[in-house]
Amino acid sequence: MKVIIVGGVAGGMSAATRLRRLDETAEIIVLDKGDYVSFANCGLPYYVSGEISERSELLLNTPEGLKARFNLDVRVNNEVVAIDRQAKTVTIKTPTGEYQESYDKLLLSPGASPVVPPVIGYEVAQNVFTLRNVENLDEMMAYITQHQPQKAVVVGAGFIGLEMVENLKLKGLEVTLVEKAPHVLPPLDEEMAAYVSQELVKQGVDVRVNTSVVEILNEGKAVRLEDGTELATDMIIMSVGVKPATDIAKKAGLALGMRDGILVNDQYQTSDENIYAVGDAIIVKNQITGEEALISLASPANRQGRQVADVLAGKARQNKGSIGTAIVRVFNISAASTGLTERQVKLSGKPYKVVHTRGNDHAGYYPGATAVTLKLIFNPETGELYGAQGVGTKGVDKRIDVLATAIKAGLTVEDLPELELTYAPPFGVAKDPVNMLGYVALNVMEGLTEMIQWHEVPEKIAAGMVLLDVRNEGELSRGQFPDSLNIPLNQLRERLDELDPNKAYLVSCASGQRSYLAERLLKQHGFKATNLDGAFFLYSVVRPEELI
Amino acid sequence: MKVIIVGGVAGGMSAATRLRRLDETAEIIVLDKGDYVSFANCGLPYYVSGEISERSELLLNTPEGLKARFNLDVRVNNEVVAIDRQAKTVTIKTPTGEYQESYDKLLLSPGASPVVPPVIGYEVAQNVFTLRNVENLDEMMAYITQHQPQKAVVVGAGFIGLEMVENLKLKGLEVTLVEKAPHVLPPLDEEMAAYVSQELVKQGVDVRVNTSVVEILNEGKAVRLEDGTELATDMIIMSVGVKPATDIAKKAGLALGMRDGILVNDQYQTSDENIYAVGDAIIVKNQITGEEALISLASPANRQGRQVADVLAGKARQNKGSIGTAIVRVFNISAASTGLTERQVKLSGKPYKVVHTRGNDHAGYYPGATAVTLKLIFNPETGELYGAQGVGTKGVDKRIDVLATAIKAGLTVEDLPELELTYAPPFGVAKDPVNMLGYVALNVMEGLTEMIQWHEVPEKIAAGMVLLDVRNEGELSRGQFPDSLNIPLNQLRERLDELDPNKAYLVSCASGQRSYLAERLLKQHGFKATNLDGAFFLYSVVRPEELI
C-alpha cells in the first residue's frame, strides 16, 4: 500500500506514525509545503515573549528523525498543487520544479489558513503578521529584532489573538486589542469573557470591542477603526480566525460543505473512496446538536489522524464527533469552555437554564486558595448538559475537563453531585465546584430556587422588584446595586418585618450562596423571592458601570 | 418535625443546613460530644507544620454562627450515650449531668474513631497521639510546644499518616514511618506507592515497611518493632486506620454489618425507620463491585448528609454507592486513586489487565513540564474501567478526576481517547495522559501489544526471554537491566540481523513508548516481542536493587 499524506503536523503526522506501527511494509510519503513538519503550533506565541526560550523546542521532529524511527518519507517544501483522482496521482511543486507521485490512498490534512479580512492597505504593509507556522514566527521575530516595535495592534480576540496579546505585552510592547464581536473571546459567553476583559485591562491592554480595523495607514504605521479612530502602531497581528485550507480539494472536485470544509463520512473518507481527510479542514459532527461544525483544535486533529490510520489499516474506527473543549491563559487567569455556549443553545431553540457558581479551587482554609467561577448551561427538564465555561486563576482546566468528560459521557445535572473527585486541602474542596454546580442546577430543576440572570436585572427592577442585598455591612464598600435594601443574612430571620409581603425581592450577596439561603428563608415565610445568579461578583465584572 | 443529629462535622452539618433550607419550621438539634462542630478535619495535619498558620482557619463555623444563619440548635460537649428507640428519645451526657431529648427523626453521623492497635505500653505513654479532631490537635500542639520533640515515629502510612509525616518533617523533626503492609500507602498498588516511598526517602524520612510497633518503651521514649529493633523517639503518632464509631448504635440494637458499620438502605434509613445514618459510620455499596464497603472520606460524607436531608424533607433521593477517590500530597509529589486497586480486582477474580503510562502534565516544550505516571486497571474483554492511580508532581488530581468521572459514568477503555480535554501549552498536552492511557489499553485489548508487568520480569528472564533495551546509549548511565541487549530504537530496523528469530524479546525503553514502537516493528518482521509496561522508569522506582 502506498499512502500519500498531505500535511505533516497534528493530523497528518499522527496518521503517518500510527500507520507505520500498524503496517511496517506500507510506503508512507508525507508532503508538506512548509519548511517544517511536526512543529508545536500551539507553542508559537510563547516564543514571542521568550517564555519558550529555545526555537528548537518548537520543532518536535525532523524528516531525518522520522525516517530513522518510523521509516517515513517526509518531504518538506513539497506542495501538492493538484490531484488527479482518475490517475490516482498528485502533482507536487518544489522549489525547483514539479513532479508527480502516485498513491493507493491519499490523506489530506492541510489544516486551516488564517482568514485575511478585507482591510484597505493590507497588501502594502510589511508589518502585518499572522501566526500559524514556524515561517510566520520567524518572519515576526525577525521584524521584532530588526525594528524593536513599541506598539502592536492585535486584530481578533480569539484564543490565538489573546495569546499574542499576552506574549507581546510580556515582551514589553504596548498592545491594543481590536475585536469585532461585542466582547473578547467570542467562543465564551459575554459574562464569562468579561473576566478576561477585566484582566486584560488590569494588565494595561487597550481593549476595543464592537469594532474592527478597516484600513491600514502609512504602510502599517497606523490603523483606522470603523468609527474613524486612528491608532499609531509598529506592528499588526491578524488573528481574526481561520478557514479550511481546501483549495486543492475543491479543485479536485471533492465534496465540500460549510465554509468549504471537506465532507467526510464517519471513517474520514471523502467523496472519493481513495481520498481521506482529517483535522481543521474537515467538517465534523457536533456531538451535542448533531449539526455540522468546523473545529480547529489540536486534540481532535491528533485523534482523527490516529483513527484514520486505523481505517487505512483495515481496522474499524468511527469518528464519533466532537463537543469542542478549549482553554486559554490570559496573564493571571485562565478561561475555558466545553460544549455549547449559551448563545448557541439559545439559537438552537432548545429549552435551557443557566447557573453560575463561584467557589475555591482548593480548601479555603489552606493557603493560596483562589476563586473558580463556573457556568453551566443545561436542559431544565431532562438535566442534559449542553455546555460549561470556567474562569479563574487556578483549577479551571481541571473542572472543565471533568465537565467535558461528563458531557461526553451523557451524564446529567443529577449526576454532577455524585462525582467523586480527589480531595485533600492542597488540591480541592470536599464539595468540589463541579459538585456544587450540579447541586445548584438541581435546585433550579426542582424549583427550590428561581434564578434571575445578570442581564435580566434592569427589566426586573423596572418592573418593581426590590434588590435585597444580604451581604454584611463591611462588604458594601466594594460596590452596591443602586436602590438596594441591605439586610445581612444572619439578621434576616429577625428582620422579616422590614419586608413588604406584596413586593417581589431579588436577593443578592457576594457569590450567590447566601442569597440562595435568603431566598429559601423568605419563600418559606411567604415572601416572593428570587436569587440573582452569580450575584454581586459576576455583576461587578460584567456590568461594573451599573453599580454604585 | 423534630430532628436530632448526632455529630456536627461533614455529614451531620451538611444534613442540618440542607434540612433548614428545605424546612424553615423543623426543630433541628445538632449534638456533638466534642468542643467543636464544623471544623476542617482534613486541614488538621497542616496546622502542625504551620502551613496553615491560624488555628481559627480550621474552625469553619460556631454554634452561634449556625444559630444566626440556619436557626440550628447546636450543642457541643453533648454526647449521646443511649437511644431509646421505643420512646424515641436519646440520653445525652454533658459535663454537668445527663438529660433526655425526644425526636421524630434521629440522624446518626458519628464518624469513625482511630483504631488503637494492641501495643504494649500504649496506656502509660503521654506522648502518643491520634489526629481526628481539634482536641487531638490541641493536645499534640501543646506537647510539641512544651517538649520541643526532635524525633517522631508515625505508625501507619495511609493518607493521614503520610500527611503527618510530611508536616512533622516540615516542622523540622526526624521522622520514622512504620507500616505493617508491604508498602506505604496501602490504598494504592505497590509499584505506584513506590513513588511515594522514593519521595519519602529522598526527603530524609526513615521508612520501615512490613513491620509494626509492638511495644512502647520507657513511657514513650522508644518503640520496639516486630523484629526487635528499638527506635528512640520523642513522640508517637498512631494512624493505623479508623473504625465506625457505632457503640451507641450497637447498644440500641441497630443492624450493623462489616466492622460494625451501620447498615442503611439506599435512603440512609437504618433498621429503625425513624433513625438514619450517614458518613464514615455507614456501610455503602461499592459501585463497581456491588459489594459492601466502608469509606472514610469527606466528600461522600458531605453528599450523604445533603441527601439524607432531602429524604427527611420528603424528597426522593438515593444513595447510588461510591467508587472511592482519594489523593495525598507527600512533599513534592501527589498520589491519587479512584475505583478498585489491582489487588482488589485480582481478589475479586474478575478478568483484568493493567497498563502504565508516563507523560507530561503539560506540553513538554513549554517550561515546567513534569511527569505524570498513570495506571489503569480494566477488563480486557469489555473495556470496563475498574480503577486508576496516578503519581507525579503536578496534574495528578486532574487526571484522576477525569478518570473518576469516566468510571462513575460507566465509560470504557474505548471512550478514553475520545475525551476532549482542555489543551493549551501551560495546561495540558494535545494527547492528554488520559487519552494516552486509553490508547495504550486499547492496544492491549486489540492485541497490538502484549504487556509484561514489572513483577513478571524475573520469571520471564528465567524462562529465556531476552531483555532488549531500545534507549539511546546516553540514557544507559541511569541504570540498566542486567544481561540486557541495547539497540537504540532509531537503529533497530537496520540491525535486525543482530536478533535471534528463535528467542523471545522483552523490549524496554525509558517510559514504554519507544519499546512499544520496537515491539510493533519486531512483530511485523517476524520476531517474538513483548513490551515491558512502564519500562525502565517504573522498574527503577519499584525494584531499583535489581538494576545495575
Automatic annotation (TrEMBL), chains A, B:
Record carries keyword Zinc-finger: no
GO molecular function annotations of the record: oxidoreductase activity
Cofactor: FAD
SUPFAM superfamilies in the cross-refs: FAD/NAD(P)-binding domain, FAD/NAD-linked reductases, dimerisation (C-terminal) domain, Rhodanese/Cell cycle control phosphatase
UniProt xrefs under InterPro entries: FAD-bd_OxRdtase, FAD/NAD-bd_sf, FAD/NAD-binding_dom, FAD/NAD-linked_Rdtase_dimer_sf, Pyr_nucl-diS_OxRdtase_dimer, Rhodanese-like_dom, Rhodanese-like_dom_sf
Keywords per UniProt: FAD, Flavoprotein, Oxidation, Oxidoreductase, Redox-active center
SMART domains according to UniProt: RHOD
A family per Pfam: Rhodanese
Family assignment from sequence similarity: Belongs to the class-III pyridine nucleotide-disulfide oxidoreductase family.
Protein name from the UniProt record: CoA-disulfide reductase
Source organism: Vagococcus zengguangii
